[in-house]
Write a structure and sequence with these properties.
This protein is mainly α. It folds into two domains: 67 residues; 52 residues, no CATH class. The chain has three helices and no strands. The radius of gyration is 35 Å and the shape is elongated.
Length: 123
């Protein structure tokens, strides 16, 4: 066997070896993608609901032992009446405004202001 034939055989072996290496790498890549997809599905359908349940349970227990303070009923009524008077006292020459939506927004903002005044950074 001549040196030229040995050199040709050597290069053929290198090319075949690289082809096998690329093929095996592609197989590992596909297996990794498949396992990642399976992990994602397991997380979405098994672990995520369990984690959400644990979070919900934690917040319920926390709220049971350390309830969030609320404003007294008379203060809430006063704030809601002030919000209603404010919304209805605005001059509107046009028709078709969503007064209830604006009332909900103003009432929420004023309740937050009153709550911050009453409790501040306690929580």
């Amino acid at each position: 066997m001549s040196e030229l034939e040995m050199l040709a055989m050597f290069f053929i072996q290198i090319i075949v070896g690289l082809g096998i290496l690329i093929f095996i790498s592609a197989i590992f890549y596909c297996i990794g993608i498949l396992l990642g997809g399976m992990y994602l599905l397991l997380y979405m359908f098994l672990m995520y609901p369990v984690i959400q349940f644990c979070r919900s349970l934690f917040w319920r227990i926390k709220e049971f032992f350390f309830p969030t303070p609320t404003l007294p009923h008379w203060v809430q009524t006063k704030v809601l009446k002030e919000a209603a008077e404010f919304v209805h006292s605005k001059h509107r020459p046009w028709d078709g405004d969503n007064l209830f939506g604006e009332y909900i927004w103003v009432a929420h903002e004023r309740m937050c202001i009153k709550w911050d005044k009453a409790f501040g950074d306690v929580i």
